Amino acid sequence: MEVTVDGQPLDPRLDIRNHSPTGFEVGYGGSGPAQLALAILADALGGELAQRHYQDFKREIIAAIEDDTWIITQAEVRSWLHKVLSSPDDQ
Asked: What pTM value is reported for the model?
């Protein structure tokens, strides 16, 4: 699966965690979606926040994607994180 940010390939961030060296996936809760969730969060928020929240992002957002073509904006990623950080469960 090809994933781009502003027309450039998304860095999979294997340097942070290597779940899926074979690539990104969506639509389920496995290693390909985990790598994609980590990469998206690292791109939008930085590595520390990405490491802390990517598994939840995978479960809530990436696993729910059903189409081969999709768009998520940095604003949507930040909105998701704001919701998570505002949750009493994350205190």
From this structure: 0.91
